[in-house]
Amino acid sequence: MKPFILLATRAEDGPANEEYELFLRYTGLTESELRRVRLEAGPMPELDLDDLSGIFVGGGPFNASDPIEQKSAVQRRVEAEFNALLDQVVARDFPFLGACYGVGTVGAHQGAVIDRTYGEPVGVVEVSLTDAGISDPLLAGIPPRFDAFVGHKEAMRSLPASATLLASSASCPVQMFRVGTNIYATQFHPELDVNGITARIHAYTGYGYFAPTEVHVPLAAVRAREVLHPSRMLRTFVERYAR
C-alpha cells in the first residue's frame, strides 16, 4: 500500500505526538503507513502525489484570518506551501482530509471568507448532516445528527462556489465541506476522543481559547456528552483511498 501522510503544524511535542497517535489509532494505520511531516519544524518536502494514497491535515495554532503583519515567518511559509500543494490536490481531485486547519487551508485556497464570526469555545456541539452529507460515502455509518469536539477562534463565514456543504451546527454554519469528489475539510475534530481533548486543553491553556483561571469550564464541557461517531470517517477515508 502506498502511504498516507499527515501534515502537522503543532510546535509543542506533547500535543503534536498525541495528535499523531490519535490519527494512527482511528485510521488503523501503522507509522510506516501514515507518515508525519511537522511543518512548523521545517519546509514541506516535495510530495509526489503518485507515491501517496492520501493526505491528512491536523489542527494547529495558525489562524488564516490573522492580519499578515501578525503572522510569523513560519506561518507565512506554511500557508504558501499549502497553497502550492492544494493547487495540485484540487487539479487532480486527490484524496485530502483536513481536520480543523483543513478549513483554513482548503477554504482559503478556494477563496472562502474566513473570520471570527463563527468561532466556537472548546466543547461538544451537535452537528447535522446536510442531504449531501447523508449521501456522501465518507460519512457512511455516521448518523444524521452526531456530537463532535470543537474549539476554534475562526471559521468559514461563507461557502465558496466550488464547495459542497456536508455538515453544519447551530453555532457554526460550515462544519464540513467537500471540494470536487475527494477533498474534505472539517471544522470539528474527528481525530479526538475525550482523553485527547482533555490533554489538549491543558496543553493550550493560555493560548486564548479560554481564560487560564477557568480551565474547569472547557474540561466540564468536553465531558458533558459522549462523542462516538466522528472518528469513523478517518477509517472510512483509509478504506476508500488506500491503493
UniProtKB/TrEMBL annotation:
| A single GO cellular-component term on record | cytosol
**Signal peptide (from-to):** none
Q: Which UniProt keywords apply?
A: Glutamine amidotransferase, Transferase
Q: What is the lineage of its organism?
A: Bacteria, Bacillati, Actinomycetota, Actinomycetes, Micrococcales
InterPro entries (alphabetical): ChyE-like, Class_I_gatase-like, GATASE
**What GO molecular functions are on record for this protein?**
transferase activity
Q: Where is the Glutamine amidotransferase domain?
A: 46-192
Please state what the protein is called. Glutamine amidotransferase
Q: Which Pfam families match?
A: GATase
